[in-house]
Amino acid sequence: MHIRDLMKSALDSLGRTKGRTALTMLGIVIGISSVILVLSISEAAERYIVSTVNSFGTGLIIVANGPPSSGHFTHAFAEEVLTYDDVHALKQKSWIDLAMASVEQDDKIIANGVERGGKVTGTMPDEIKFYDIKTSEGLFLAQEDVDARSRVTVLGYEIARELFGDEIAVGKTAKINRQNFRVIGVMEKTGTRGFDNVDRNIYIPVTAAQDLYNKKHVMALIVRTRLASITDGMRRIQDVLRDRHNIDFGEEDDFNVLSQEELVKTATQITDVLGLLLSAIAAISLVVGGIGIMNIMYVSVTERTREIGLRKALGARSRDILSQFLIEAIVLTGVGGLIGVGLGSLFSFLSIVAISSFQSGWSFSISTNGVLLGFGVSAVIGIVFGYAPARKASRLNPIEALRKE
Asked: Cα 382 to chain center, whole Å?
């Protein structure tokens, strides 16, 4: 039989059992749309993280708590060793351009009879230079505020409006963790950065944050050097901190010095692994769908035993019968694959739109790997799971098939 006749026969056969055909395709549709959704969101997350890190400019160096062997990102169990004195020592070096330490804590702020939640960010004056942000009212934190451990605060745009409305916030008093802080500035509207809503930040001197939350250490140091080589800058920072932490030759650092490129690489590896893991989970439904197709094709062979016997009695060869049922399975999975790709693309778009409504900076694009994987898996499932029933049909004895009631 010609391929055109086989396709027509397959479509006619599937069209006679529309309900069963639709339910059989459902597993393939769900599996492929899930894979495309997961991969598209994973790739969008990777682009977002890379663009966020790159927004800091070039030459960024981050010093995290915990030894290099603990991984590239600070985790909850990393021993805290970095102090404000570490960043103060670095700032004295002529080859350092910008440097700051940070302490962060989710907390409530009370002012003007209103209580709101936000992120208390203990930081330093270089914060506005690193992130290229400005105040809309008043001033940002000065080094004198950090040195004096002053209880002063600069409010993010959103939280300032919630606390004081259209009133001028500068000069007012706000209470954080039962301590009074004087508002000296309000930031311009910024939006999200990374996974945080910056407009809800409550900036205070890093030293004041240490006092407020009884912290001896800081979360991380962020540094930019004046050196042409970022590797040279990382080495010098490492030497300064090893000397300050009294680490002997041959001993492992108790801190981790990372470049901007390493952060991007690590973030990319994490999103790739997560995408692969989630895709593998989603692919389980593809296997289930394939088993469903095999079962339905076996049922179809049983139901059409007399038809097969009649065709073979009239001269149809075994390979013609094999081709007919194999084409039916491939058409079934192919159509399911097309629907899955369409739904997966639609759900990916809607998901990115939903995420963007809460966090700006996400961009949508269909995962090419997901689409190719969807079509490839559809074809493979059609062939692999459709072959056994098709082979069974092709090997039926025509006389026994015609006697089948």
From this structure: 32
DSSP type of residue 187: E
The residues facing 104 across adjacent strands are 121
Dihedral (C-alpha) 207, 212, 217, 222: value to the nearest 10 degrees?
-50
Record the tokens describing residue 184, joined without a space: 């000296």
> Tens digit of pLDDT for each residue in 248-283?
888 888 899 988 777 777 777 777 777 777 777 766
The owner of tokens 């259209």 is 166
- CA–CA dist 104, 60 (Å, integer): 20
Give the span between the Cα atoms of 191 and 189, in whole angstroms. Answer: 6
How far is Cα 26 from Cα 34, in angstroms, rounded to an integer?
A: 12
Residue with tokens 């296997």: 287
- Residue of 107, 77, 112, 358 whose CA lies nearest to 209: 107
* Domain residue spans of the chain: 3-52+265-403, 96-220
Q: Is the pLDDT of residue 11 over 70?
A: no
Strand partners, 1: none
pLDDT digits (tens, 9 = 90+) for 204-227: 999 999 999 999 999 999 999 988
C-alpha triplet 383, 386, 389: angle, nearest 5°? 145
In the structure, what pLDDT confidence band is assigned to residue 77 with cuts at 50, 70 and 90? low
Pairwise CA distance, residues 33 & 345, whole Å: 7
393 in Cβ contact with 298 (< 8 Å): no
Say if residue 16's pLDDT is above 60.
yes
Confidence of residue 95 (pLDDT cuts 50, 70, 90): very high
Q: Which residues have a Cβ under 8 Å from the Cβ of 358 and sit 6 or more positions away?
A: 192
Cα 256–chain centre separation: 24
